[in-house]
Design brief:
The complex is a heterodimer of chains A (about 110) and B (about 900).
Chain A (H helix, E strand, L loop, with lengths): L4 E2 L4 H11 L3 E2 H11 L4 E2 L5 H10 L3 E7 L5 E7 L1 H25 L7
Parallel strand pairs in A: 1-3
Antiparallel strand pairs in A: 2-5, 4-5
Chain B lengths: L2 H13 L1 H25 L4 H12 L2 H11 L4 H18 L1 H30 L10 E6 L9 H10 L7 E11 L5 E8 L3 H5 L5 E2 L15 E4 L1 H7 L10 E4 L2 E8 L15 E4 L3 H5 L14 E5 L6 H18 L9 E4 L9 H36 L1 H9 L4 H36 L16 H20 L2 H6 L2 H7 L7 H36 L9 E7 L9 H14 L4 E7 L9 E5 L14 E8 L3 H5 L3 E4 L13 E5 H7 L10 E3 L5 E8 L15 E5 L7 E8 L3 H19 L5 E5 H44 L1 H9 L4 H34 L11 H27 L3 H7 L1
Parallel strand pairs in B: 3-8, 5-7, 14-19, 16-18
Antiparallel strand pairs in B: 1-9, 1-10, 2-3, 2-6, 2-9, 4-7, 5-8, 6-7, 11-20, 11-21, 12-20, 13-14, 15-18, 16-19, 17-18
Helix pairs in contact in B: 2-3, 2-4, 5-14, 6-12, 6-14, 6-15, 12-15, 12-18, 12-23, 13-17, 14-15, 18-23, 18-25, 18-26, 19-22, 23-25, 23-26, 24-27, 25-26
The chains are: A alpha+beta (about 110), B alpha+beta (about 900).
Chain lengths: ~110, ~900
């Protein structure tokens, strides 16, 4: 667990949106996809995913429908709505700006000040 | 957030709770199965894989609950929870809840009553179709709304702005359906009245313009619904029946709809009769007298598309025409449009100003109540800071706590609003049914309508928001760790400062109310003792109209003499006089007078407009009006001798030069009659407004200018409080002995005076009620503040006592601040109140704020309030037992 980073508050929603934007997924699939795209560097408790998913559905950013998974099991699949796609773009831009600012701030050396 | 999605999910959650719960469960199970599949693929046995999957998933029940919450739609459920919880909390402190609800109920009740009156009289239009473009005509020059009949005809026929102009006037008559004759009030209406207003009959038909063919040509009446209901027992056969008005036959044409009560808001007629038949009721006719203005009101709908400005221009051209054509009677005629229903601008502006003032005061009361409740809430929130801190520490969000506090505030405000409105509606129903003048069908149309209910509800919600908002900052700043660690005494001081400001504001408001109600009460008391020029005590008034019993011409004075002689035989009666309309009664007569040398009798040449009375020789003695110089009328001052007048001192000094030398001088009446002044009487009050300035008045002999409308003034040496019943029945039996068909209304003069004092009494009563409410509010406010500060500083006081502080020092420490606030607020309130009474002076007689008694009274009242309110907290502070206190902690 030592090499996994704690999620910053609010970033889980962004990760979910990103994961789902790559194609419809069921809950467990979202988890796997996040692990895959982040190189398993982020620690997410599995159950914590669901309140976030339902919140996004309630906000109209995701829509859900029951289907059959590759394992031949019943599962609920999520995909982005138009509003969700828009939100993802906005959040992504915001995050990039924040990350760039943080990176440059943290990279500052004494002689640059 | 996508609102639709939100509501859909909310609705889903509300109605399909089990289904959704099942759905969430299935999804979580599916997740674990998938995870187990993966683990199994990695080589674990199925059972072990499932166990691991369960463990990895974490607290499944918690996530399920959280997911459920996240789906939203729990607003209603949370609200229900909040309401339940608030109910429990309030039940635990019933004293607080009852005090809060009662305070608010009083304030909202007062507001809804005042608003309903304002609404009924000024905001709500007359109950006729298209009332928004209905206007009355008022004469521009003298603000009187009454017009002469020929002027009405000219206005009706010459204007191009109105869809017809209707006229009406108020008449009374003796009404006889064959049984007991009764006294009724009716409108004499122009033939087009109902058509102009656009009203349809409930039964039968209405009078139309085509029914009129000159004097006394339309002997028809239309009953009002309530008169038909009350006197004809809803009998449809009443239509077509013949009845007698003042002994003249009339046919009932129809019944007006129930919602139509005439076009004067506070005066509902019993029925309607064509104006052209007025002579049969009044005995005189002025249908052709252009100078005699008696048509009560002219009104009509503006034509579609005609603006007020266009109508004004149209009317002023008619005014110019009338001035030119009839210089004697219509000098400088001009007309303006006014709102119908309140007799033009005659008294409406004063009433409106007073009601708006009252509304402001009532608003202040509500504000004071909110301030009061707000500080109560803030104090409660402070005392509950431990509970709040605990809830915060246990993970409740601040929004959730605030929401719950607001729920409490709204519960109280809604309960208070409902209680207040209920009380207000009771008062309003009583007011609507109230007949302040028993002989007039006068009422106050203030039954609450939807507007009133909505206003009360909005007021309740706003006040809930106001006082609920006060503790918000306190909650937002609560630091759970600090409070739990240090106990409830660790608190910031700034919330108290807000409360202090609120308290000062509240005391100031109360000061305003107390001062203005004192000014009003004092004014009323003074108006009781002012010199009215009459002595109403121990006198009876009998209102009769000989015309109603069919007396004409010379029969009238003969009958009047018989009536006087009959009354004089009643034991205890000292003197009996006649007057056409008693002073201070509605319907006084005003006449122009001209100088002795005048030959041109157009109104602009008049030297003065004076109040005029027609009286019998014994009148001054019976009325208690003192004769200053000269002589009284005698029975010889009749039609065969020169016209004489008795004038008041104001008339003598203002018009005839001096009070001393006026006797023997002459003046002329509008018809050119030369009148000699034979006597001077003291000044008095004459019009139905006791606050009037001194007015010139003249008294003419009823023998020279007869009047069939007669009031008998009967002075007795009996105590009217005790013997009025007995005297009344004696008078009635004497009258019946003279003529059983003569309708009469008998009352004591004091009772009759209620009419003149009505305005100032109502003003005093309403201000008094508001003053008492303001006083109660500030008592509870000061009490709350003082009690709170004492209880908070109990420990400190204990230490002070233990260190040897004297009683005075303890009191100063405990209540010094409360007293300072009280003094400050009272001073501000007093100053504001004195300013406010300038408005009062319009209605309340001699409402002078520069009255030492009022000033002392107000200061004393405020001091007393402070004393009452701080008494209990002061006792508590003085009885501090340092030992017990120090041991407790």
């Amino acid at each position: 667990m030592g090499d996994q980073a704690q999620l910053l508050p609010g970033t889980l929603d962004l990760l979910i949106l990103k994961a789902v934007s790559l194609g419809p997924l069921h809950g467990y699939g979202v988890l796997l996809r996040i692990g895959q795209i982040s190189g398993s560097a982020l620690l997410i408790e599995q159950g914590a995913l669901y309140p976030a998913l339902f919140r996004l559905v309630r906000q109209g950013l995701l829509k859900a429908s029951w289907g059959i998974s590759d394992n031949n099991r019943r599962a609920k699949f999520y995909e982005l709505t138009t509003a969700g796609r828009k939100r993802l773009r906005e959040e992504q831009d915001g995050w990039n700006r924040l990350a760039a600012a943080m990176t440059s701030a943290l990279a500052a050396r004494p002689e640059e000040v | 957030m996508n609102l639709l999605a939100y509501f859909r999910s909310a609705a889903l959650r509300l109605f399909r709770r089990a289904e959704i719960s099942e759905d969430v469960d299935a999804e979580l199970r599916s997740h674990i199965d998938h995870r187990a599949d993966d683990l199994q693929r990695d080589g674990l046995a199925r059972v072990e894989a499932e166990r691991r999957a369960h463990i990895e998933f974490g607290a499944r029940e918690r996530y399920k609950e959280e997911s459920y919450e996240a789906l939203g739609g729990n607003f209603v459920q949370t609200a229900v929870q909040d309401v339940r919880f608030s109910g429990r909390v309030l039940r635990k402190s019933p004293g607080f809840a009852i005090a809060a609800v009662a305070t608010l109920a009083l304030a909202i009740g007062a507001n809804s009553v005042v608003f309903a009156v304002l609404n009924g009289l000024f905001l709500r239009p007359l109950n006729v179709p298209h009332s928004q473009d209905l206007y009355s005509l008022q004469r521009g020059k003298d603000t009187y709304i009454v017009q002469s009949y020929p002027d009405y005809v000219d206005l009706r026929d010459r204007n191009r702005s109105f869809d017809g102009l209707a006229a009406y006037t108020i008449l009374q008559a003796g009404f006889d359906t064959g049984k007991n004759p009764s006294h009724v009030w009716l409108y004499g209406v122009s033939g087009n009245y109902f058509d102009v207003l656009g009203i349809q009959p409930y039964l039968g038909r209405f009078v139309h313009a085509s029914d009129e063919h000159g004097l006394n040509s339309a002997p028809y009446i239309v009953l009002s619904y309530s008169y038909w209901h009350g006197h004809f027992q809803d009998d449809p056969g009443a239509v077509g029946r013949e009845v007698r008005l003042n002994k003249h036959p009339f046919t009932i044409l129809g019944v007006a709809p129930p919602e139509f009560h005439g076009t004067l808001l506070f005066f509902s007629p019993d029925f309607f009769m064509p104006l052209v038949n007025q002579q049969q009721l009044a005995g005189w006719t002025d249908l052709n007298a252009r100078g005699n203005r008696w048509v009560f009101e002219i009104l009509g709908h503006l034509k579609p598309g005609v603006t007020r400005a266009q109508a004004d221009a149209d009317l002023s051209s008619i005014g110019a025409y009338l001035t030119k054509a009839y210089p004697k009677d219509d000098d400088q005629a001009s007309f303006i449009l006014v709102r119908p229903g309140l007799h033009g601008n005659f008294f409406a502006p004063a009433i409106r100003a007073f009601l708006v003032g009252l509304m402001l005061l009532a608003g202040l009361i509500l504000l004071a109540a909110c301030a009061n409740l707000g500080s109560l809430f803030a104090a409660r929130a402070a005392d509950r800071s431990r509970e709040v801190a605990l809830r915060l520490a246990l993970g409740s969000s601040r929004t959730r706590i605030l929401r719950q506090l607001f729920t409490e505030a709204f519960l109280i405000s809604l309960a208070g609003g409902a209680a207040g409105l209920w009380g207000g509606v009771m008062v309003l129903h009583w007011l609507s049914a109230w007949k302040p003048f028993p002989q007039f069908p006068m009422n106050i149309p203030v039954n609450p309508d939807a507007t009133v209910y909505v206003v009360a509800l909005v007021l309740a919600l706003i006040s809930g928001l106001l006082f609920g908002a006060l503790p918000v900052r306190q909650v937002l700043r609560t630091n759970p760790y600090e409070v739990v660690k240090a106990g409830s005494t660790a608190r910031m001081g700034r919330g108290i400062a807000v409360r202090d400001v609120l308290l000062v504001v509240q005391i100031a408001i109360c000061g305003v109310l107390v001062t203005s109600s004192m000014v009003a009460v004092r004014g009323l008391a003074r108006s009781m003792h002012t010199n009215l020029g009459i002595e109403p005590q121990n006198a009876m008034l009998v209102d009769t109209d000989l015309e109603m019993a069919g007396y004409k011409g010379d029969d009238v004075p003969a009958m009047q003499k018989r009536m006087i002689d009959a009354m004089a035989t009643i034991p205890g009666v000292i003197s009996v006089g006649l007057v056409d309309t008693p002073p201070l009664h509605m319907g006084w007569a005003v006449s122009n007078v001209f100088s002795e040398k005048a030959t041109d009798f157009r109104p602009s040449n008049a030297i003065a407009q004076v109040v005029s009375f027609r009286v019998s020789p014994e009148y001054f003695k019976a009325a208690g009006t003192a004769l200053l110089t000269g002589r009284n009328f005698s029975w010889r001052d009749d039609r065969h001798s020169p016209n004489v007048a008795v004038v008041n001192r104001e008339f003598a000094s203002r018009i005839l030069g001096s009070a001393g030398g006026a006797v023997g001088k002459h003046f002329k009446m509008p018809d050119g009659t030369r009148v000699e002044v034979v006597g001077i009487v003291e000044d008095g009050k004459y019009t139905a407004n006791i606050a009037e300035d001194p007015q010139p008045a003249m008294f003419l002999s009823i023998l020279q200018i007869p009047a069939s409308d007669t009031w008998m003034v009967i002075r007795t040496n009996l105590d009217m409080g005790r013997d009025s019943q007995q005297v009344t029945s004696a008078i009635r039996s004497k009258l019946r002995g003279l003529d059983p068909g003569l309708p009469s209304f008998i009352q004591t003069w004091d009772e009759e005076m209620n009419g003149a004092l009505f305005g100032s009494r109502m003003a005093t009563a309403s201000l008094g009620v508001l003053g008492v409410m303001g006083a109660m509010l500030s008592i509870t406010g000061i009490f709350g503040m003082a009690a709170y500060s004492v209880s908070r500083r109990l420990k400190e006081l204990g230490i002070r006592v233990a260190l040897g502080a004297q009683r005075r020092e303890v009191l100063a420490a405990a209540l010094g601040r409360a007293f300072k606030l009280l003094a400050f607020g009272s001073a501000a309130g007093l100053v504001l109140g004195l300013l406010a009474t300038k408005v009062l002076a319009f209605i309340v007689y001699e409402a002078s704020p520069r009255d030492p008694l009022v000033l002392c009274g107000a200061v004393l009242a405020m001091a007393l309030l402070g004393l009452v309110a701080t008494w209990i907290p002061a006792q508590r502070a003085l009885q501090v037992n340092p030992l017990a206190l120090l041991r407790e902690e």
